[in-house]
Amino acid sequence: MVQYSIIVLLAAFCGAYGIGYEQHNFIRSELCYERRNALFSKIGSFWERKVRTLPDFATGAVFEQSWNSSSYKRYSECKFTLQPTIGHGLYLTIAELTMRRDAKGGCIDQVSVKQSNGKKTRFCYTPRDVPRSFSDAIYLKITIILDHSIPLTTVDDTLLVRMVATQNRECIDSRTDEELRCDPHVLHSCIHRSFMNDGTINCPNCIDEPSCDQKPVELFDANNLKEKIVITGFLSLLTTGFVFGLFFLCLYKSRQWVLSCSGSNSTSSNSTGNRVHVTRTGRSRTRQERGNVVAGVHSVELRGSSNDLRPSAPALEEKDLPPSYDALFPTTTVASSTSAGPTTVSAATSPTLPKANPDREIIPA
């Protein structure tokens, strides 16, 4: 599609000039002056003449304009000059003309054609049997004047001007496939043979068509064709660029979507793993804390039980115990030894008894 667009543009810019006609609209071609700017337009027309030169021998020109009940009031007149290329002459044929005339046959709206010799012709109609035509070797000045003070008869009425300009040249050999002689008595009257039987009258005596009384057909416009080709190529390029841009945009968006989805999946898996790890860690910590609590309780209980078994006061230094009762009062020994005589208790065996004073007399019990 890109190659097609490039080819179309190259064909347009290289020049799609074929055999045909250039069509000109008076208003779009800025050949008519608006009524509100009529004074400035007339002043400007003195140093800026609107001259239209025909392109080549094989290409004609059609000047056409229609006005309705509203548009004809906006324009005061249309004025321009037609010129042929160097070495050629000019034919101008009034193909269609619809202008207003009063009850006496006078022209309300009129068209005037001035030739290079100063001859000026005013008219507001063209005969149907032989269309009005003009010929000049240098130029033709055309002026169209509309009377806006008089309204059209009905709203649907229109004013119309349609004229065809064709270049002629000196006939070299009319028997060739390139030339067609309009007037057998005039040497400088040959037009291009491609204008023959194309539905448009080019010669003044209608020799290029079967008859003069025929309805003009839609013309092949080389200028419009070039414009259409350029527009078509430009639109093709725009469409191609838009399609490729949309394709790359969709590709970019899909790539971003895939990357975002993969990133979100990895993030969710990491977060899930972290949550599981945190949960497991929390559970292990909870279990450990519970074990520590239980161990603490057990240790407390064990410490409490050990405290019950052992004295809380510091251990005293071990001392000598007092003698036992048997050691103090040996009854068996005394009873067995009664027969032997009185027995005395030794002071050495009873550390608690005070020693006997040698100065005092011990009274036996």
Strand/helix succession: HEEHEEEEEEEEEEEHHH
Mean pLDDT score: 73
CATH class of the domain at 20-217: Mainly Beta
The portion of residues assigned to helices is: 25-40%
Quickly give the CATH architecture of the domain at 20-217: Sandwich
* CATH fold descriptor of the domain at 20-217: Jelly Rolls
Q: Which stretches of 5+ consecutive residues score pLDDT under 50?
A: 1-18, 217-225, 293-309, 333-356, 358-362
Region (Disordered): 263-291, 304-323, 332-365
Keywords: Membrane, Signal, Transmembrane, Transmembrane helix
Transmembrane segments: 229-252
Biased composition (Low complexity): 263-274
Would you write up a description of this structure?
Among the domains are: 20-217, Jelly Rolls (Sandwich), CATH 2.60.120.290; 219-248. 33% of the residues lie in helices and 21% in strands. The chain is built from five helices and 13 strands. The protein is elongated. Residues 1-18, 217-225, 293-309, 333-356 and 358-362 have low confidence and may be disordered. Residues 263-274 have a biased composition (Low complexity).
Give me some keywords for this one:
Secreted mucin, 21% strand, 33% helix, 365 residues, five-stranded mixed beta sheet, signal, Jelly Rolls, transmembrane helix, transmembrane, six-stranded mixed beta sheet, alpha+beta
